[in-house]
Design a protein that fits this description.
The chain contains twelve helices and 15 strands. The chain starts with a helix and ends with a helix. It is globular and about 70 Å long. It is mostly helical.
Length: 406
Amino acid sequence: MTRNKEYENLIEKYVKENAEKVLREPSGYLKYRYLVPGSVYSQSLWDWDSWLTDMAVAGVVSADNLIDYEKGCILNFLEYMDELGRIPVFISPTVMQPEFDEKNEKNIHKPCLVQHALFISERAESFEWLRNIFGKIKRFIGFYMKYCRHENGLYFWLDDSAIGVDNDPCVFYRPNKSSANIYLNSLMYRELLAMSEISTKLGFEDLRNKYKEEADNLKSVMQTLLWDERNGFYYSADLNLRPIDPNAGLHRGYPRHWSSVIQKTDVWTGFMAMWSGVATAEQAERMVKENYLDKRTFNSPYGIRTLSKLEQMYLIVKSGNPSCWLGPIWGISNYMTFEGLLNYGYIDEARELAIKTVNLFGRDVKENGEFHEYYDPETGEGVNNPGFQSWNLLVLNVVEWLRKNG
């Protein structure tokens, strides 16, 4: 596939001209400077958006005080942590969501806050700003470990709202606490590793070992319970099983020996096992050959379909909150899959996906002067929310990789 250098230049110009538009000053509930996704989310601080937006603009924004906006994302969220360690998913000047209940039935900030804090600290070459808030960060991770972890070691969503991949069929419209989601567990694995690294930098060797052991254990459980040998892919798992009661009727004859059942719905987040480093080399090879390259399922002219085209739920439609992840191309699904391919040495495949991603965003800038939130996989046309920036700005990282690697 041939590179389009006109698109690369348009993207570079657009990102550099628009990167500082994601910066916001304190207002209302938001006591510190912060970063926003843009478009209809132009005044809101969102959990994984702020982390990924920061990764995109950190090398572009010229403001000397960018570090204040970066740290402010973390500090704003921690400002509204409750005694259990629950943090809102998003905060605007006038609204915070969700409103937590006593039964712990509402999802909290995704497990990416520690990864964001690590990114900021490494870039600033200083971890000391975390020392006074490290207790709160531990409480945040502790909530996931206590309230969102199944007895088999996998992590689950508390409900089906604000999961990031909004209407993933493995979670959306399903019972609370029933999905050991591959996306969630991949994030959690990286979050535990980030906790281990920050503990090291702050001199907490006992915690360093604790969180590294937790990460290693989660990786092992994911490889055992979320990998499907038949299809060569990582899936989410269904935890919604009747409890074991060896004295109950028919079950008395043979109580189940399995703790979950794989949900064989082909969602792009399976590739996050490569992004996170959970997949073995052998598993990654099968994922690429049998799933990534299959044009009937994920592989489209403009990147990775968020849901396999062969799934009954496949649909390209304009929607918002929840947004449609049932097939459209999202900038972040392309980017994370791209990183996963690089992690395992699939350079040719990564290069092809990089060019597709540049073509997608470059054409949008040329024709419309801006990015959209997500796109039609077959035509590359923007489907929803023109002006959305957020993780789309990561496409400049892809451009820079192409320039270095051809």
